[in-house]
Amino acid sequence: MTHWLHVRRADTPLILAFPHGGTAIPDDLLGAFRSRWWAIRDADWHIRQLYDGLADATMIWNDMSRSVIDCNRDPSGASLYPGQATTGLCPTETFDGEPLYRDGATPDIAARRAAWFTPYHAAIEAEIARLRAHHPRVVLYDCHAIRSRIPRLFDGELPELNIGTDGGATCAPALSEAVVAACRGRSHILNGRFRGGWTTRHYGRPEEGVHAIQMEIAMRAYLDEPPDEPDEHNWPPVWNPARAAPLRADLERILAAVTAFAKDQT
Are 39 and 82 in contact (CB under 8 A)? Predict the structure, then answer.
């Protein structure tokens, strides 16, 4: 892999993908942003630490900030949520609507797509093909986290666990049912505000043995979020293993249910 793209392989039929955990910004792009902090603020903070060691699974992640390239958006530029506020393949504003770039600066979308989006998804495609050669079913589980309250994107406070299958199109009902059942004890919703991004929608082909599901976690489930909009003094929250431990136990149970589905050949 390249220095910014990583694949940790396992031979089980489970893939964990992390498109938004990175905070790297190439030096030649950094000057166009209003500030580096604005450009990394909306990362899925500590997401890989949250999942690390919970399941025997292939893990795929990249180090780039989602402000450089969002690897979970439609590469054509089409909105995943028509009529609702969202951010694009190369975002020009934060989740809260503040402009990311200095006046006159714009991202070269085609160049960034070729440099980072295409290799990231080539890695996912290669791992799906590798594992499908040995397993009748493969599950791609897309790992995400987001602030619990972002008024521009959604009303009120998100449930802790937000499961997306694009209305049931991206996986067998048995998989989403197993995940929902494993979410017991926490607030959760299936196909609510987040129904699955481009990764889930693109790769989910249950009729071909490839099942995809997205888990969007409200960060209060494992981090101490500030009561108001975050600033440079209180964001991101520090990683505290003890604080995250209860959610990690729940996620271990969820991933066990996902793996059991993937291995079930009945």
Answer: no
